[in-house]
Amino acid sequence: MKSFKESFNLLIEKKLKLPSNEKVVKELTKLGKKKNVTAVITSKGSKFNLYVDNQMLDTFRSEKDAVKGLKEFIKVMGV
Length: 79
Description:
Elements: H1 4-16, E1 23-31, E2 37-44, E3 47-52, E4 55-60, H2 63-77
Antiparallel strand pairs: 1-2, 2-3, 3-4
C-alpha cells in the first residue's frame, strides 16, 4: 500500500507531466511577495531539476543547490 506522500507525489508528477524517470523530491508553494508562485524540485539520477510555475528553470547537482537557486531566482525577478 502506498503512503500518503507517495500518492501525493504521484499526483504532482502527473499534473506536471514529468518524464517517467523523474521523481518529485520537494514541492514549495506560496512563494514570492504575493504568495502565488509554486516550485517543484525533481530528481533524475544524480541531477535535480527545478520547475517554477510548471516551467523547467534549471538543473542542479544537489537539492540544496536547487533551493538556493530558487531563492535567488525569486529575489532577482522580484516576484
